[in-house]
Write a structure and sequence with these properties.
The protein is built from nine helices and two strands, in the order H-H-E-E-H-H-H-H-H-H-H. It is mainly alpha-helical. The protein has a single domain, classed as Globins (Globin-like), CATH 1.10.490.10. Helix 3 packs across helix 5 and helix 3 packs across helix 7. The two termini are about 25 Å apart. Bound molecules: protoporphyrin IX containing FE.
Length: about 190
């Protein structure tokens, strides 16, 4: 697989971030003054509208549309990472070993934790993140599932995979740009090498 360079990732994010700025500017020109709270990123990703949850094993289970969309993006991203030779064996060997043995408990927990994390980080009010802190989760000394300390090049590669996971689910470039800005605020906690 072609490795995404830092410059490539930054170029993608710069293009989508410019689109965000332009569309925000255009929207604000059309707006009259309003007291309504600005929509969160979570609202833009689907928000709190309740929909049927096709990913649940419970018949008739409902879920917020924003969380369902994030769940799809997270699972797609895990599959992109699993196929990404720049990241898979070096960092995710515990997870991949389990899945190779038909044990999906770690996958299910990671999927839930990542979905909770992105839900809360984008502005969801009805979910809680109960996993490790970003610093502990990405330190092999405190998380034996983390194969090695990540460098900033690894971080860029991870974000590139996240962009692919979002694109596979039809997330707009606007929203990908906003999520990209958000994840780069976490780089200092994740990158420990
Ligand atoms: C801002 C970007 C990132 C976010 C938001 C993020 C988030 C998370 C979260 C929420 C968890 C689960 C923690 C828990 O189970 O308590 C996790 C685990 C993990 N992360 Fe990240 N992460 C990011 C970047 C990275 C990068 C760059 C790498 C490696 C290159 C990485 C590798 C891992 C690994 C190996 C695990 C453990 C997976 C497992 O449970 O088997 N993450 N991450």
């Amino acid at each position: 697989m072609k490795k995404l360079t830092f410059n490539t990732v930054m170029a993608i994010l710069a293009i989508v971030a410019t689109t965000v700025v332009l569309s925000t500017t255009m929207t604000s020109c059309n707006k009259s003054t309003s007291s309504a709270a600005a929509p969160t990123l979570y609202d833009s990703l689907g928000g709190t509208t309740m929909v049927k949850d096709p990913t649940s094993t419970v018949s008739g289970a409902m879920i917020e549309q924003g969380r369902l969309n994030l769940h799809y993006v997270v699972d797609s991203t895990i599959f992109v990472i699993a196929a990404d030779t720049a990241l898979n064996k070096k960092f995710f060997s515990v997870l991949l070993g389990e899945v190779g043995n038909n044990n999906f408990s770690g996958f299910t927990e990671l999927s839930k934790n990542l979905t909770d994390f992105f839900s809360v980080a984008t502005g969801a009010k009805d979910y809680t993140y109960t996993g490790m802190s970003m610093a502990s989760a990405h330190n092999p000394a405190t998380n034996s599932r983390m194969g090695a300390k990540a460098s900033s090049a690894d971080f860029d590669q991870f974000v590139g995979d996240l962009v692919k996971g979002a694109q596979k689910n039809g997330v707009s470039n606007n929203l990908i740009g906003s999520v990209g800005k958000l994840v780069y605020t976490l780089e200092g906690q994740v990158v420990q090498k």
